[in-house]
Amino acid sequence: MQIEDLKSLLAPVNTKIVLLVMDGLGGLPMEPGGKTELETALTPNMNKLAVEGILGQSCPISAGITPGSGPAHLSLFGIDPVKTEVGRGVLEAFGVGVTVKKGDVAARGNFCTLDANGLISDRRAGRIPTEEALPICEKLKTIKIPGVEIEVKHVKEYRFAVVMRGEGLSPDLEETDPQRTGAAPLSVVAKNAAAQKAADLFNKWITEAHKILKNEPKANGLTLRGFATDPGLPTYKELYNLRAACVAVYPMYRGVAQLVGMDLIKFSGETPSDEFKAVADHWNEYDFFFIHIKKTDSNGEDGNFDGKVKVIEGVDAAIPELIALKPDVLIITGDHSTPAKLKTHSWHPVPYLLWAPASVRPDTEVEFGERACMHGGLGVFPALENMPLALAHALRLNKFGA
Amino acid sequence: MQIEDLKSLLAPVNTKIVLLVMDGLGGLPMEPGGKTELETALTPNMNKLAVEGILGQSCPISAGITPGSGPAHLSLFGIDPVKTEVGRGVLEAFGVGVTVKKGDVAARGNFCTLDANGLISDRRAGRIPTEEALPICEKLKTIKIPGVEIEVKHVKEYRFAVVMRGEGLSPDLEETDPQRTGAAPLSVVAKNAAAQKAADLFNKWITEAHKILKNEPKANGLTLRGFATDPGLPTYKELYNLRAACVAVYPMYRGVAQLVGMDLIKFSGETPSDEFKAVADHWNEYDFFFIHIKKTDSNGEDGNFDGKVKVIEGVDAAIPELIALKPDVLIITGDHSTPAKLKTHSWHPVPYLLWAPASVRPDTEVEFGERACMHGGLGVFPALENMPLALAHALRLNKFGA
Lengths: 402, 402
Hints:
homodimer, alpha/beta, Alkaline Phosphatase, subunit A, eight-stranded mixed β-sheet
């Protein structure tokens, strides 16, 4: 059954669903015979939910495939990320809080170092630190091109985002990074006639930018990649008739949530408790809350096993605040695995806990961990099934057929 | 995610993968409450790998479907055998070591018995034994048809393979077996105009063959089926950027491996140890080794439970020779099940063991057997996922999306 078919089954009820995503939750033991990060963490509250609920392993894309954060979240939101591509430029822009609307063209920018002949000698400008790159980005913001509005924002180190807004722009543009040193940055080339206007405008902007950069010691050039526009995804309201809200500290995840029509809840602080309080403050306004915890992933990427354990324990300690709201469905999972052992995203399936007092069929597992989830009653299933499972356990889906 | 997408994710690393296929590995208990062949076998080495690795059940085609050896191996190789048909004639020819190239037409031949009116009285020529059929096949080899080269080779009992090579041949031909007694063998009929030339040539060959056979007491007729040519499958190099080699005793499996571009490693002997030594001798030349063990299946087909147990124990005893090579990924599985209790291939999912010290997420299982695999962390999964899993655990796949 296809996801789009859910629309015809939606029931008009007022149950509430909470999706708590600990980014990169899945892990690995550091030593043979050892435990994973989640298995090591003391999680009495999540273990209680595991007793009362059901566990399983969620597969973000398909067997063996390691997802980026964008595709992994789209899967959890019920949108097939293989069929629906969200361009890198759009994710990069949303990641720093720059909105990309349909018809805007966003790109990822890299500063690079050019030699005396204008050839690239370092594709990442010596990985210049953020504090050096920020003032350079400020200078780029001064460029004006008649007929369009341009927004530039620094991302991290040598990376920035640029978004062009105006009439008749198409994102069908070739990237300007020659992907090697010893070659000059390429011009922006239109992939078709409709994109010629955007190509010309981006080339004008690049010419102006190179004038500004020419005396920089390292970042005296730039390349643009991942030209893209808002992919026009269906919204949570359209797909599921849910008033959905996002509580996330990092802009990237707020961006993906916006792409599917979630409202952003503003709040101060960045602890799990701060995030859960933001949910509590808006409890009556929404049917669905997506809560994103970033630091499980950051610690995994850093190879910091103990740090990741501590983040998980911090989330666990705050869980009673969520339970006190009496959600009808609480799902605790990750978007993908980021084992500290591998220091990067991985393909391993993701621990998944579904708690729904009125409707769940509990399995026999008594704690939340990778190996418990391997024995969980939900088995291994595609993350695309997250939303049908959530809606069903919230009693929001009518019967299919007579 | 489609398998063809893996190409864009391939990472240029030098890790090594070994796929050890024990043909027909899956089994059944002979008595209620009993153990299967694999559970009965003493396999201390594979049990150690089970402790360190992860288990699961591989489904060759889909639930309830019993595969032939060709489709079952294609699945393990990552090629959907339902979408990609390899004609029976091609498999039969490769099975006896006859190569079929693009444009050649291969067919399976059956000897049959004709009555005085030329009608089939026995579609399998009384299942004449191999020693009677071999000299008849020798006579058929003498037939010459101008303009084409013809190769005939005996397979087993009443079965043989015939391959025609020449210009402008098409395999779109109807089979000549009327599928019942009391009817005459049919002529070869072209399914379209382009196949008329091949039809005429095969009919000429059949006419000559019947002249030679006419005084045989049992095999005085023949039928041809499964006309096919090389399906032009993508190679391991194209699909996975793997230098792949095959170590197999039986021609059929070397044939399937050749169809996906594997090199054949020549070696003497036919024990597991002989096969593993062949791998060791060529360890530096390849990234991927497919090792095929036939006798698990042969004993299963013969209903020889104890014989199959002994073959498995023989493989286990040689496993340290493989481990000594330090593969990054070792997968031990079967292509399908051949329970001695059923004396034939079956649809039951196949025990699957994945060992990869740097990247595997171990489950809680401590021995390699059907019931341990039912509780394994990989769950039940399509055999088509074997290659994505192998590549991922060898750290040969980049991240999908940002």
